[in-house]
Specification:
Number of strands: 16
CATH topology of the largest domain: TIM Barrel
CATH architecture of the largest domain: Alpha-Beta Barrel
CATH class of the largest domain: Alpha Beta
Radius of gyration: 21 Å
Distance between the termini: 26 Å
Structural class: alpha/beta
Bound molecules: iron/sulfur cluster
Strand content: 15-25%
Length: 403
């Protein structure tokens, strides 16, 4: 199997910077407060991130990347000098081919005019700012590290950014109200955001928020309020010209995130950094998944030796493709699905599609969810999973599709 056979298209590149200014009380992402790390660790980490990306690119014969996404953690927490070095190295990984989209995540505590200059000079064309909420009490109760004044200043600064701007917001925070949500979306729009990622707060195991909720110190909004908050999102986004194109993502036409779209379409990507994942579709329909270690010292000493590799079998990869495809309004690409797994989705999921037909639509390249289905996706996906399990029990998914 040669590399062109494995990766006929350019993959995406994900770089995980595992540092933040502090640690938010609800966060389960892999990140450490920068001040808790040994002095020279960020510099060593920057070199290790690039080395590991080069190793993976060499292994899969990758000569360039379609898109790059630098997330974490908080890449801007590195400070302008280390961030500039990292971005220069990432630009070099493209092998002279410019990325079609290059995103860097930022959080309010570390976004400065100097940081924006470093991003612009490196060629970054998309800034993703974690704003979350402009309601002070709400942020405090959730244990957000940045406060409202930092968030507002960052949003104002981000409005001077010449590239694409995406703003992250959270729903379901303690004490949040619909008026606050409307105001936050309005603020993001006024700052020039063409893209919004709006996530529901989940209480993750082992976080300070979990302890606070369990002890009753913090109360989450009741179900009826949650529904009102999401209605406020739907109305305000629609009237501000944002279209929901994925369960948690809204964009002005043409401003959809190309990097994430590659994930949802089941494309290949290479991930570097503690906790990052690489995903390489294989010719038999399965997927090679590589999970990087979360241990910083292990990653710094020899990342490849501590990474875990797994082959996801074709049947599981097919279900993953259904799950991620139906998160998006464009839905599945029937031809691509059939070429990869040997079945057209319409044949594979005949029973589920028939049961849910009132909430399904014809997408640009195959079956797609309606807006309403995006709100209640899980029972539909459970039906799809049961149907696929029944069909493939004890059999490999490929070959064997209908003639
Ligand atoms: S800024 Fe983001 S990644 Fe960092 S601790 Fe807070 S939620 Fe987690």
């Amino acid at each position: 199997m040669n590399s062109a056979e494995i990766l006929p298209d350019l993959p995406g590149l994900y770089v995980h910077v595992p540092y933040c200014a502090g640690k938010c009380g609800y966060c389960s992402f892999h990140s450490r407060p920068l001040k808790a790390c040994p002095d020279n660790e960020p510099e060593r980490m920057t070199a290790a991130l690039l080395d590991r990306a080069r190793d993976l690119a060499d292994r899969f014969g990758v000569s360039g990347f379609a898109t790059a996404y630098v997330g974490g953690g908080t890449p801007t927490a590195l400070g302008p000098d280390a961030l500039g070095t990292l971005l220069e190295g990432i630009a070099g990984l493209g092998g002279g081919t410019p990325f079609r989209e290059w995103t860097v995540e930022a959080n309010p505590e570390s976004l400065t005019a100097e940081t924006l200059r470093v991003l612009r000079d490196a060629g970054v064309d998309r800034l993703s700012l974690g704003f979350q909420s402009g309601q002070a009490e709400v942020l405090r109760a959730a244990g957000r590290s940045a406060g409202t004044s930092e968030g507002m200043s960052a949003l104002e600064l981000a409005s001077s950014w010449r590239g694409r701007l995406s703003v992250d917001l959270m729903i379901g925070l303690p004490g949040q109200d619909p008026e606050g949500v409307r105001t936050d979306i309005g603020r993001a729009a006024a700052a020039g955001a063409e893209h919004l990622s709006i996530y529901e707060l989940t209480v993750e195991e082992g976080t300070p928020l979990e302890t606070a909720v369990e002890s009753g110190t913090v109360r989450l909004p009741p179900e009826a309020m949650e529904a009102e908050l999401w209605s406020a999102v739907a109305e305000t986004c629609a009237s501000a010209g944002y279209r929901r194109y994925e369960v948690s993502n809204w964009a002005r036409p043409g401003a959809e995130c190309l990097h994430n779209r590659n994930y949802w379409r089941g494309g290949a990507w290479i991930g570097t950094g503690p906790s990052a994942v690489s995903s390489i579709p294989l010719p038999d329909g399965g997927t090679l998944r590589i999970q990087e270690t979360r241990d910083h010292e292990d990653f710094l000493s020899d990342a490849g030796a501590f990474a875990r590799e797994e082959i996801v079998p074709p049947a599981t990869a097919a279900f993953e493709a259904v799950m991620t495809g139906f998160r998006t309004r464009e839905g599945l690409d029937s031809e691509a699905f059939r070429a990869r797994f040997g079945w057209a989705p319409e044949d594979l999921l005949r029973g589920s599609f028939s049961k849910w037909k009132s909430l399904l639509e014809k997408g640009p390249r195959g079956p797609a969810p309606s807006d309403r289905l995006l709100d209640i996706l899980n029972p539909f996906l459970l039906d799809c999973m049961a149907e696929m399990e029944g069909r493939f029990e004890g059999r490999a998914l490929r070959p064997g599709g209908p003639a």
